[in-house]
Amino acid sequence: MAIIFHYDELNNTVNTVFDDQGELHVVLTSNHARKLSELILTVQEMQSGLRATFFVRMKRLVKGLFLTSQVMLKHGRLFELANIVVLKARLSTSQQMEDGQTLFVFKR
Prior knowledge:
- The chain is of the alpha+beta class and about 110 residues long.
- It is built from four helices and four strands, in the order βαβαααββ.
- It has helices spanning about 15-20, 30-50, 55-75, 80-90, and strands at about 5, 25-30, 90-95, 100-105.
- Strands 1-2-4-3 form a four-stranded mixed beta sheet.
- Strand 1 (about 5), helix 1 and strand 2 form a beta-alpha-beta unit.
- The radius of gyration is 14 Å and the shape is globular.
């Protein structure tokens, strides 16, 4: 059974849990889920756009820096997931729950 983390429970142990279990489950409110989804999409764009033109890469870079600063300043606990989103997770899925929250599942 996987451990489910909520926003208030995000801390430096999420990396350890991900390394031990190979997956991580996080439940977020709609506001936090929207920012995390944007961060995931931006990372995917950056990683897949190696053949893009210089201006497209710079636009993505500026967007990524702006989004990262927003996450750091306004949604600080989400930044605990940055290492998993950028380096470790090969697959991330999200699912809307009945109560309006969103469940994110990160897998190797």
